[in-house]
Amino acid sequence: MPAQAIDPSAYLQAGRELTDRLLEKYLPPVSSEPKSLHEALHYSVMAGGKRLRPQLALAAYEYCGGSVKSEELPIHYAMAALEMVHTYSLIHDDLPCMDDDDLRRGQPTCHKKFGEAIAVLAGDALHDIAFELMARTGRTEPVTELARAIGTAGMLGGQTADIEAEGRQVTEEEITEIHRRKTGALIRCAVRVGAILADAPAELLSRLTIFGEKVGLAFQVIDDILDIEGDQKLMGKKVGSDSKNLKATYPGIVGMPQARRTAQQLIDEAIAVFDEGDDNALKLIALFIGQRQS
User: Fold this and answer.
1) What is the pLDDT of residues 97-111, one digit of tens each?
2) Domain range spanning residue 142?
3) Which of these, 29, 82, 153, 283, has the minimum number of CB atoms within 10 Å of its CB?
4) Contact in structure between 61 and 198 (CB atoms under 8 Å)
Protein backbone atom coordinates (compact mmCIF):
# COMPACT_ATOMS: atom_id res chain seq x y z
CA MET A 1 0.00 0.00 0.00
CA PRO A 2 1.46 3.39 -0.95
CA ALA A 3 2.58 5.43 2.04
CA GLN A 4 0.52 8.42 0.86
CA ALA A 5 -2.62 6.26 1.23
CA ILE A 6 -1.79 5.58 4.88
CA ASP A 7 -2.60 7.98 7.69
CA PRO A 8 0.36 7.25 10.00
CA SER A 9 -1.48 8.00 13.23
CA ALA A 10 -4.56 6.02 12.18
CA TYR A 11 -2.47 3.09 10.97
CA LEU A 12 -0.43 2.83 14.16
CA GLN A 13 -3.51 3.30 16.33
CA ALA A 14 -5.34 0.53 14.46
CA GLY A 15 -2.33 -1.75 14.96
CA ARG A 16 -2.27 -1.03 18.69
CA GLU A 17 -5.98 -1.69 19.00
CA LEU A 18 -5.74 -4.99 17.12
CA THR A 19 -2.83 -6.08 19.29
CA ASP A 20 -4.73 -5.17 22.46
CA ARG A 21 -7.73 -7.23 21.32
CA LEU A 22 -5.50 -10.20 20.62
CA LEU A 23 -3.76 -9.93 23.98
CA GLU A 24 -7.08 -9.76 25.83
CA LYS A 25 -8.24 -12.79 23.86
CA TYR A 26 -5.22 -14.98 24.52
CA LEU A 27 -4.33 -14.05 28.10
CA PRO A 28 -5.78 -16.32 30.79
CA PRO A 29 -8.81 -14.64 32.42
CA VAL A 30 -8.18 -12.90 35.75
CA SER A 31 -11.12 -14.83 37.20
CA SER A 32 -9.27 -18.15 36.79
CA GLU A 33 -6.74 -19.53 39.25
CA PRO A 34 -4.10 -18.54 40.17
CA LYS A 35 -5.89 -15.19 40.22
CA SER A 36 -2.96 -13.22 41.65
CA LEU A 37 -0.68 -14.38 38.85
CA HIS A 38 -3.25 -13.77 36.13
CA GLU A 39 -3.94 -10.31 37.54
CA ALA A 40 -0.22 -9.54 37.30
CA LEU A 41 -0.18 -10.70 33.67
CA HIS A 42 -3.05 -8.43 32.71
CA TYR A 43 -1.63 -5.53 34.72
CA SER A 44 1.69 -5.66 32.88
CA VAL A 45 0.59 -6.65 29.38
CA MET A 46 -2.39 -4.30 29.15
CA ALA A 47 -0.56 -1.26 30.56
CA GLY A 48 -0.20 0.17 27.08
CA GLY A 49 2.90 0.61 24.98
CA LYS A 50 3.63 1.18 21.33
CA ARG A 51 3.09 -2.49 20.32
CA LEU A 52 5.82 -2.06 17.69
CA ARG A 53 6.92 -5.69 17.54
CA PRO A 54 3.50 -7.09 16.64
CA GLN A 55 2.93 -4.19 14.25
CA LEU A 56 6.23 -4.90 12.49
CA ALA A 57 5.25 -8.56 12.19
CA LEU A 58 1.87 -7.66 10.71
CA ALA A 59 3.36 -5.07 8.33
CA ALA A 60 5.93 -7.59 7.07
CA TYR A 61 3.22 -10.22 6.68
CA GLU A 62 1.04 -7.86 4.64
CA TYR A 63 4.00 -6.60 2.60
CA CYS A 64 4.77 -10.18 1.60
CA GLY A 65 1.21 -10.80 0.49
CA GLY A 66 -0.21 -12.51 3.57
CA SER A 67 -3.99 -12.73 3.79
CA VAL A 68 -5.80 -10.79 6.52
CA LYS A 69 -9.33 -11.89 5.59
CA SER A 70 -9.90 -14.19 8.56
CA GLU A 71 -10.59 -13.13 12.15
CA GLU A 72 -8.11 -15.68 13.53
CA LEU A 73 -4.89 -16.22 11.62
CA PRO A 74 -1.42 -17.59 12.39
CA ILE A 75 -0.07 -14.03 12.25
CA HIS A 76 -2.43 -13.08 15.08
CA TYR A 77 -0.98 -15.78 17.34
CA ALA A 78 2.50 -14.53 16.46
CA MET A 79 1.63 -10.90 17.15
CA ALA A 80 0.35 -11.70 20.64
CA ALA A 81 3.32 -13.97 21.33
CA LEU A 82 5.84 -11.28 20.39
CA GLU A 83 4.24 -8.68 22.66
CA MET A 84 4.04 -11.16 25.54
CA VAL A 85 7.74 -11.95 25.22
CA HIS A 86 8.53 -8.24 25.12
CA THR A 87 6.48 -7.65 28.27
CA TYR A 88 8.09 -10.59 30.04
CA SER A 89 11.50 -9.08 29.30
CA LEU A 90 10.39 -5.73 30.74
CA ILE A 91 9.04 -7.33 33.93
CA HIS A 92 12.33 -9.12 34.53
CA ASP A 93 14.37 -6.09 33.44
CA ASP A 94 12.71 -3.98 36.12
CA LEU A 95 13.47 -6.37 39.00
CA PRO A 96 15.77 -5.25 41.83
CA CYS A 97 18.37 -7.81 40.75
CA MET A 98 18.45 -6.23 37.28
CA ASP A 99 17.68 -2.52 36.68
CA ASP A 100 15.67 -1.98 39.88
CA ASP A 101 13.08 0.33 38.29
CA ASP A 102 9.85 1.26 40.04
CA LEU A 103 7.93 2.86 37.15
CA ARG A 104 6.97 1.39 33.78
CA ARG A 105 4.45 2.75 31.27
CA GLY A 106 3.36 5.35 33.79
CA GLN A 107 2.50 2.94 36.58
CA PRO A 108 4.35 1.00 39.30
CA THR A 109 6.40 -1.87 37.91
CA CYS A 110 5.08 -5.41 38.33
CA HIS A 111 7.30 -6.24 41.31
CA LYS A 112 6.31 -2.99 43.05
CA LYS A 113 2.63 -3.85 42.61
CA PHE A 114 2.66 -7.60 43.24
CA GLY A 115 6.00 -8.40 44.87
CA GLU A 116 9.17 -9.87 43.40
CA ALA A 117 8.08 -13.51 43.47
CA ILE A 118 4.86 -12.91 41.52
CA ALA A 119 6.74 -10.66 39.09
CA VAL A 120 9.25 -13.41 38.33
CA LEU A 121 6.42 -15.90 37.85
CA ALA A 122 4.49 -13.43 35.67
CA GLY A 123 7.46 -13.12 33.33
CA ASP A 124 7.85 -16.90 33.25
CA ALA A 125 4.13 -17.34 32.51
CA LEU A 126 4.21 -14.88 29.60
CA HIS A 127 7.23 -16.73 28.17
CA ASP A 128 5.26 -19.99 28.38
CA ILE A 129 2.05 -18.60 26.84
CA ALA A 130 4.03 -16.94 24.05
CA PHE A 131 5.55 -20.21 22.91
CA GLU A 132 2.20 -21.96 23.09
CA LEU A 133 0.76 -19.26 20.84
CA MET A 134 3.68 -19.40 18.42
CA ALA A 135 3.23 -23.16 18.18
CA ARG A 136 -0.40 -22.56 17.23
CA THR A 137 0.77 -20.96 13.98
CA GLY A 138 1.24 -24.56 12.80
CA ARG A 139 4.78 -23.81 11.60
CA THR A 140 8.07 -24.73 13.23
CA GLU A 141 10.05 -21.81 11.76
CA PRO A 142 8.38 -19.06 13.85
CA VAL A 143 8.95 -21.08 17.03
CA THR A 144 12.63 -21.47 16.17
CA GLU A 145 12.93 -17.77 15.27
CA LEU A 146 11.51 -16.74 18.64
CA ALA A 147 13.67 -19.18 20.59
CA ARG A 148 16.83 -17.92 18.88
CA ALA A 149 15.84 -14.27 19.32
CA ILE A 150 15.45 -14.54 23.08
CA GLY A 151 18.13 -17.16 23.79
CA THR A 152 21.80 -16.88 24.65
CA ALA A 153 22.64 -15.69 21.14
CA GLY A 154 19.90 -13.04 21.39
CA MET A 155 18.11 -11.19 24.16
CA LEU A 156 19.38 -13.21 27.13
CA GLY A 157 22.94 -13.11 25.83
CA GLY A 158 22.66 -9.38 25.28
CA GLN A 159 21.26 -8.83 28.75
CA THR A 160 24.15 -10.82 30.23
CA ALA A 161 26.71 -8.75 28.31
CA ASP A 162 24.90 -5.58 29.37
CA ILE A 163 25.18 -6.54 33.05
CA GLU A 164 28.83 -7.49 32.69
CA ALA A 165 29.58 -4.15 31.00
CA GLU A 166 28.27 -2.10 33.92
CA GLY A 167 30.86 0.26 35.36
CA ARG A 168 33.54 -0.40 32.78
CA GLN A 169 34.59 1.25 29.53
CA VAL A 170 33.42 -0.60 26.44
CA THR A 171 34.09 -0.04 22.76
CA GLU A 172 31.59 1.06 20.13
CA GLU A 173 31.77 -2.45 18.68
CA GLU A 174 30.91 -3.97 22.05
CA ILE A 175 27.91 -1.72 22.72
CA THR A 176 26.64 -2.31 19.20
CA GLU A 177 26.76 -6.06 19.78
CA ILE A 178 25.00 -5.71 23.15
CA HIS A 179 22.22 -3.65 21.56
CA ARG A 180 21.94 -5.99 18.56
CA ARG A 181 21.28 -8.91 20.86
CA LYS A 182 19.45 -7.36 23.82
CA THR A 183 16.91 -5.34 21.83
CA GLY A 184 17.52 -5.81 18.13
CA ALA A 185 17.14 -9.59 18.03
CA LEU A 186 13.44 -9.59 18.98
CA ILE A 187 12.64 -6.76 16.55
CA ARG A 188 14.46 -8.61 13.78
CA CYS A 189 12.52 -11.73 14.76
CA ALA A 190 9.19 -9.89 14.51
CA VAL A 191 9.89 -8.84 10.92
CA ARG A 192 11.14 -12.29 9.93
CA VAL A 193 8.20 -14.12 11.52
CA GLY A 194 5.71 -11.95 9.66
CA ALA A 195 7.51 -12.59 6.37
CA ILE A 196 7.84 -16.32 7.03
CA LEU A 197 4.13 -16.71 7.81
CA ALA A 198 3.39 -15.04 4.45
CA ASP A 199 5.75 -17.50 2.68
CA ALA A 200 8.12 -14.77 1.54
CA PRO A 201 10.70 -15.92 -1.03
CA ALA A 202 14.32 -16.15 0.14
CA GLU A 203 15.48 -12.92 -1.51
CA LEU A 204 12.68 -10.88 0.04
CA LEU A 205 13.19 -12.50 3.44
CA SER A 206 16.87 -11.58 3.24
CA ARG A 207 16.08 -7.93 2.52
CA LEU A 208 13.53 -7.73 5.30
CA THR A 209 16.03 -9.32 7.68
CA ILE A 210 18.42 -6.44 6.98
CA PHE A 211 15.54 -4.02 7.57
CA GLY A 212 14.77 -5.65 10.92
CA GLU A 213 18.41 -5.58 12.00
CA LYS A 214 18.82 -1.88 11.19
CA VAL A 215 15.54 -0.84 12.78
CA GLY A 216 16.22 -2.95 15.87
CA LEU A 217 19.61 -1.38 16.47
CA ALA A 218 18.26 2.12 15.79
CA PHE A 219 15.51 1.55 18.35
CA GLN A 220 18.01 0.88 21.15
CA VAL A 221 20.35 3.72 20.21
CA ILE A 222 17.36 6.07 20.36
CA ASP A 223 16.35 4.48 23.68
CA ASP A 224 19.78 5.36 25.05
CA ILE A 225 19.35 8.94 23.84
CA LEU A 226 15.90 9.26 25.41
CA ASP A 227 17.15 7.94 28.74
CA ILE A 228 19.37 11.01 28.87
CA GLU A 229 17.17 13.73 27.41
CA GLY A 230 13.67 12.23 27.22
CA ASP A 231 10.53 13.54 28.92
CA GLN A 232 9.62 11.32 31.89
CA LYS A 233 5.89 11.97 31.39
CA LEU A 234 6.08 10.88 27.76
CA MET A 235 8.37 7.95 28.54
CA GLY A 236 6.18 6.62 31.34
CA LYS A 237 9.31 5.72 33.30
CA LYS A 238 12.14 7.49 35.06
CA VAL A 239 14.89 8.82 32.83
CA GLY A 240 18.53 8.60 33.83
CA SER A 241 18.37 4.98 34.99
CA ASP A 242 21.20 3.97 32.68
CA SER A 243 23.52 6.46 34.33
CA LYS A 244 22.31 5.44 37.80
CA ASN A 245 23.08 1.80 37.03
CA LEU A 246 26.42 2.62 35.34
CA LYS A 247 25.13 1.10 32.09
CA ALA A 248 27.14 1.13 28.90
CA THR A 249 25.23 3.30 26.41
CA TYR A 250 25.81 4.45 22.86
CA PRO A 251 25.86 8.19 23.68
CA GLY A 252 28.15 7.48 26.62
CA ILE A 253 30.73 6.00 24.26
CA VAL A 254 30.48 8.11 21.09
CA GLY A 255 28.78 11.25 22.41
CA MET A 256 25.26 12.52 21.83
CA PRO A 257 25.79 14.13 18.38
CA GLN A 258 27.28 10.94 16.95
CA ALA A 259 24.57 8.82 18.59
CA ARG A 260 21.90 10.91 16.86
CA ARG A 261 23.70 10.63 13.52
CA THR A 262 24.05 6.87 13.92
CA ALA A 263 20.36 6.43 14.74
CA GLN A 264 19.35 8.40 11.65
CA GLN A 265 21.82 6.51 9.47
CA LEU A 266 20.39 3.18 10.65
CA ILE A 267 16.84 4.29 9.85
CA ASP A 268 17.98 5.48 6.41
CA GLU A 269 19.72 2.14 5.77
CA ALA A 270 16.61 0.23 6.86
CA ILE A 271 14.41 2.17 4.44
CA ALA A 272 17.00 1.74 1.67
CA VAL A 273 16.23 -1.98 1.39
CA PHE A 274 13.08 -0.91 -0.50
CA ASP A 275 13.04 0.68 -3.93
CA GLU A 276 12.49 4.43 -3.95
CA GLY A 277 8.88 4.16 -5.05
CA ASP A 278 8.10 1.16 -2.87
CA ASP A 279 6.20 3.00 -0.14
CA ASN A 280 4.74 0.75 2.53
CA ALA A 281 3.83 0.36 6.19
CA LEU A 282 7.27 -0.96 7.16
CA LYS A 283 8.80 2.33 6.02
CA LEU A 284 6.19 4.19 8.02
CA ILE A 285 7.03 2.27 11.19
CA ALA A 286 10.77 2.80 10.64
CA LEU A 287 10.21 6.55 10.34
CA PHE A 288 8.07 6.49 13.49
CA ILE A 289 10.87 4.73 15.38
CA GLY A 290 13.37 7.31 14.16
CA GLN A 291 11.20 10.19 15.36
CA ARG A 292 9.82 8.73 18.59
CA GLN A 293 9.89 10.73 21.80
CA SER A 294 8.98 7.90 24.16
Assistant:
1) 999 999 998 899 999
2) 7-209
3) 29
4) yes
